[in-house]
Design goal:
Layout lengths: L16 E2 L2 E2 H11 L5 E3 L2 E9 L6 H8 L5 H14 L8 E6 L8 H13 L2 E8 L2 H4 L12 E3 L10 E9 L3 H9 L6 E9 L7
Helix pairs in contact: 3-4
């Protein structure tokens, strides 16, 4: 019988390893970086699971690297912790919307949205796409302040619902702002993200 042994990509331990990160590292990460308070970025309410201050630790960098692999169970755990942290409940009153990935495979934002949708029982649609993704490719994430998105769904049929833009990591808020504009500036709109990555005083 073949037994596959995995080590934690953060600490190297072989104990309690699931989804490439051990239970102690995962628990410590959530305990250290959990962000139960909502923030305001670019004038919009943003709820995140964690607040990430680059340079403080490599733990969240390791997590992002791990998530580059296909890790549906880890997304489910992260989204469950997010839902519990913000005391969100099963609801048909919200509509989750994410950006269409530029590649053919499912990306982080889509995985995050699907996982939250599974916990809350609400609908998640890929309703936005990048206007010119190739123009953004050579820019750093801090330079993408002029990002443009196009809505590929008619949200007029969802006027009774709160529009939730889902993204895996919020940094400058440029994607959030572009989503709000592309969706026609919904009256009831906010963002749910796995992490807010701070960049000095930008977008605070």
């Amino acid at each position: 019988m073949k037994i596959e042994i995995q080590s934690c990509m953060n600490c190297g331990s072989f104990w309690f390893v699931k989804n490439l990160i051990c239970k102690p590292c995962y628990t410590a990460m959530i305990g250290q970086f959990a962000n139960p308070q909502s923030s305001e970025i670019r004038g919009h309410k943003v709820r995140t699971l964690m607040k990430w201050n680059p340079g403080e630790t490599n733990t969240l960098s390791s997590l992002v690297y791990i998530l580059k692999e296909n890790q549906p169970q880890l997304w489910m755990q992260l989204s469950l912790d997010f839902v519990n942290l913000h005391q969100l409940y099963n609801s048909n009153e919200v509509l989750l919307i994410s950006v269409q990935p530029t590649l053919s495979h499912q990306d982080h934002a889509q995985s995050w949205g699907n996982a939250i949708s599974a916990h809350l029982g609400c609908e998640h649609i890929v309703g936005l796409r990048k206007f010119n993704p190739t123009a953004q490719k050579d820019k750093t994430k801090f330079e993408r302040t002029d990002l443009e998105l196009i809505s590929i769904v008619d949200i007029s049929a969802f006027t009774s619902k709160k529009i939730i833009f889902v993204d895996d990591i919020v940094t400058t808020g440029s994607t959030l702002k572009a989503a709000y504009e592309a969706l026609g500036r919904p009256r009831d709109f906010e963002c749910w993200s796995m992490a807010y990555r701070t960049v000095g005083s930008i977008a605070k």
